[in-house]
Amino acid sequence: MKERLAGELRLQIHTDEVSSQAIAALRTECEALAPRLAGALDLRFEEGEDEGKYLNIVFDSHSPQDLWPEIKAALYLSAAHGPTLRTKSMALRTGEDGWNDYVLLYHYDSTVPVERLQ
User: Fold this and answer.
1) What is the pTM of this model?
2) 55 or 39: which carries more pLDDT confidence?
């Protein structure tokens, strides 16, 4: 039986205008980052299309909110991935009730309100 998680930290990148090389590099960076994140239990990638192509990068965790500061520092503030993520992505965490209790942590549109985690 799979252990119940407290939630996920998700990055959703709108990939229509992002090169395949940049996406591949981001995937590689996330695969290297995940084992170093205290509390990250699993990493997976989900691709799809909903009014445009997207890539979800999903970190499973008992404490997904605790992952955000490290992910923000490693990816959103990096010279390699930050410019793309800051203009083409949103970050959120889901809780025990999945999407029914999500918290938006970052949005590429600065006019969209986001939560500030303590």
Assistant:
1) 0.89
2) 55
